[in-house]
Structures are given as C-alpha cells and as structure tokens.
Here is the input.
Amino acid sequence: MPQVTFASPNWLSSFPHLVEPYPDEWFAGLLLRGDETNHRESGTIWRYLLRSTTHPGFGPGSSFIVIPEAMLSYLAQRLTISRERLLATTYAGALARLYATESPHAGHLLGPRRGVTIPPLLEKSIGNRASATVVGFHVCPICIAQARLLRRTAVLPHLRYCPTHHVAFQTHCTCGSPLILFTRRQRPFVCFTCDLDWAQLPHLQPDPDQAIRERDLWALYEFFLVKGTNELKASALSLVRYHVRTYQPLPSKLVSGRTLFALTGDLDHFSLGYVVDLLVSFGISQSDIVRHTLSAEKSSAS
Amino acid sequence: MTDPVPCVPRPPFVLHQQFLETAFERRFQGILRQAWQERSWHVIAAVPGSGKSLGIADVLHQSGAYKDTTGTTRLPILAIRAPKNATREQALGMALSAAFGIIPRMPWAQRRSWLVQILASTGVECIIIDDAQDLNLSHLALLKELTDNLAAPPYERQIGLCLVAAHSGNVMPFKETFARPDVLWKQFRRRMATENPYCVVPGHTEEEVRHILITFENLYQSQLPDLQLHRWTKTIFTWLINPILDPDATGRVTMDHLSRLVTTSLRRAYEQGATDIDAATLQAVAEVMILRRDDITHIDGSPDVAEAG
Here is the structure.
C-alpha cells in the first residue's frame, strides 16, 4: 500500500486524507469521496481545483467526462497518485480512440448539450448552491451503499439501470428534489433538501424487456469503450446506414425516445451515445459489427 | 633527489548536519515521550539554542506518521510553532490545520469543528507547540476547547500537550499565568500533569560535552584524520560557560554554542591544511564568540569577482 511519510515533501502538498480511484470510478465520484474522507462539504475539492488552476471551470451542466490536463495534474499531486490513474476516471482515453482526429470532449459521448436538469424554479431559489450539476445525473444506491462509489457508467446516455447491480439509477430523492452532484453547505452523497443519504434511495428492478434493452446497451458501450476504434465506429455506422436504407423507409422511434427521420449529417461526428442508440434500436449487435468489419477488410484486400 | 609532491587542493569542508542524540535531547525527548504516552500536559522550558526545535522534529520523524492512499492518515504527534505577532485564535487554528497538508479554505467557524474531526480521524495523541512563549490567552483558550471537545463523546480521546518555551533567568513560562484566579487558568492548571507539570531542561555538563566532542571526532575524522577534540573538553567547557554565553549562570553548555565553536574551528583547521585541531585555532574562535561577538565588521572595497568567460 503506497504511503506518504512525514519526512516526504508530499506530506504538506497533499490533502490530509488521501483517496485513490476504485476500478471504474468516475472522476466526480472520486472528488466526492475525497470531500467525505476529509470531512468537508460536498464540492470542496472541486471548487479548490477550479480556484487553483487556470481553467475557467465548467459551470452548470458539467459532465466530468473529459477533464483538462491542468486539473488532472494538479489533483494527482494533491492525492499523490499518478496522472494516468486519474485519467482512468474519465472516458478521455476511450473517446480519443473513437474520435482519433479530434481531442476528446464530452460531446463525443453525449452529443450536443441541451441544458441542465435543474428545474427553473429550483435553479432560481438555490441556483448559487448548485455549483455543478450533470445532465441526467443519477446514482446506483447499491454502489453508494457498498463503497460510496459513483461509476463512470453512470454518465453513459440511455442507461437507466446499474449494469453491476441491475437496479434503477435514481435521478431524484424520495422527497422529490433532483440529485445534485456538488452542493455547498451539505455533506457529500446526500440530498441537498432532506439530507437523505443516497445509499437509502429505493432499489427498483427492471422488467424483463427493460433488462434486455439495458443488457444490449451496456454490451455495446463496453465493446466501444474497451476495444473501440474510429474504424469500428465507422463500420458500425455503415451497418446502420444499410439498415435504414433497406428496412426503415419510414421515420422510426429510437430507444432513447428520439425519432429518426433520416440518417443525415457527418457520421464521423455522431456521438457515441447516439451511435449506441441507433445500434440498439435496429437490433445490431457487437458480433454483427465485428463480422461486417472483417468482411469489409477481406473485400478491400481482395 | 625526489620530485616535489604536487600540491592537490583539498575539497571544500563538508559540514555534517545530522541530528545528534545528546544528553540534552535524551532529557528533553524523555519528557515529550512521557507526555505522548501518558497523554499528560507539561510546560517544558530550556534556554535558547538548546536544541528544542531539533528534538521536536526528531520525535516527529520517529512518531510513525503516514498517509496512505486508502484514506487512512495517522499523525500521532502534531507539532507546530506558535504563531508570531498574531494574537487571534484563527492564527493558531491555521497553524494546526497546516500540519495536515493542503486544506482548501473554509470559514473559521467551520474550521473550528473540522479541526476536532481531523485531530480525531488522524489519531493525534499529543500536541507539541514550539516557541510557546508566543502564545496568548485566546490561543490557550482554543487549545483547551479543542482538547475538551476531543475528550467528550463521540471521540473520547485524551490528548497530551507540551508547551515548549524558551526561557531565561529563573522565570518559568506560564507558571504565573496558570496560577491566576480566573476560571480558564484554573481549568488549565487542573489539566496539567500531576508529576512534572513544569519542567526545565538544562544544557550539557562537562562530562556530557566530552561525549559530544567524541561524537564530533567520529563525524569529522574522514576530513581531519588525527582529530582528538575530547582532549580540549575542559577548556571548551570553561569558555562556553563564560557569562557572555551563559548569562543566567546555569553552568551548562548549549548545543548551539558547542557546535558553533567546534565546526568553525574544524573548518579553519581544515582550510589551513591541518589534520587535527590546535589550541590556537580553538582559542581564536572562542574569542570571536565571546569577546568580539558584537564587533561590527566594515565590508569595504570591491569583492573579488571571477570574470565570466
């Protein structure tokens, strides 16, 4: 177990209590655990990072999917861990592989931003307290109860159930208030209105159809995030294009609830969330994509 | 006929800076360790230059403090230096907080309760405050508040406290203050250790000086192979208890004076190409320390400056 001893120069340049990322932990969750371990209010380390680096900050709606280099390096020093371990709490690496021609950004996963989830009334009354919220922010109560863990998977679009515990992600407290990631003058991992610990939120199971859809979504996300490349994504989209031309002459409803009228725009810039949405909606699996990619490679070779 | 031996210039004199566990340090650290083990409260005084701060640093390094990346931090001894020219309790609170590492800012009211939490969660068992003569009423009141809160539920942790002060003459720091009739001072006095609440740790006797000189011999023998410092023990001891260096007439020698005399003399001897120290060199340095201590040196003319190529 790595230790910082009193004689080390890192003693005074690190937080009183150190935290290291769990496997698959999300950057924002690590910050919240750091706050809790150091007996600080929710969002303390995040605000400290914003003040201590030259980054202007993300403002409301921050996704914490890709974190600026300056912040990663600064936090790595304060936690005495490597920058690479912190990078693994984001999807920057996976998105860089999937969108090789551009530097990774949250839009690559989520698509164009459409505002925040704080209702206008709430925003007016406590807007100043909500220093960072996340589009569709939700938690798995069992992950929180077991390890105060917010997984990276919680930021993947369209997933509504925890892939590990198969219970519904909760977006609101039982009191009706939305869950807000960082709230001033409040402990981490609790509802900012009624103080209920997120670990005590209900555990709702999916019905069989939902379970199948969630399994398919998760399988495709895992496929792209672990092994995905720009070429695989392009191959998947060519399958989608073929499917739309052949089988979907009329507008069709996607898993996300959006309606697809036609496949337009630059396919290279489709977000991963949208790509997965299309693939699951048309019943295209990862094995279909692999097969299609292999046959395309064979035909180009011959 | 033999060729003349080429004159090879000696490398620069190397000063050894390591901590020496002298008799003073054993006495001083003994009290600190007693306070740590028994969670008792003491005022510990010694004359300036005795080696109090070095002794505290050494105890701290041996206390087993660590931070691991799973969130566990242990800081059994929390040692700070009393804030200077800062009369408000916040200054002491900031100094205590800073010993834990980087602390994102927070309001003072929040920091007060946070301090209790962090003292408990890092397992602090003893607080040592160096230069405690600079503490004032509000600082002492804060110390009492913090330790009282730790002693109460849910923490129920007793904390040792050492107020380490420099003193001169026969005045024992804090003794008169704690003897005052105010409630705060009564409460403070009640918390002091039953045995040895006020301790004065004296400097070195002649015999102890001899042991230190033998240690210096071992340290510097690689640079001065024939070094036999201990034969000058009586002379050195007599010089260093001169009323100019020992104004309180303690008849004891401080480590600061002893190491200054020895290292300056050794450096001079080394630079003269000697392999041992002689009486003249020692005496010259002693005269500088005793008789010409307050001499004013005029730095005139232009210093030799090597031309940059």
Q: What stands out?
A: Chain B has a mean pLDDT of 92. Strands of chain B lie at 41-46, 66-68, 73-74, 77-81, 126-130, 160-166, 198-200. Chain B has two domains: 23-200, 206-290.
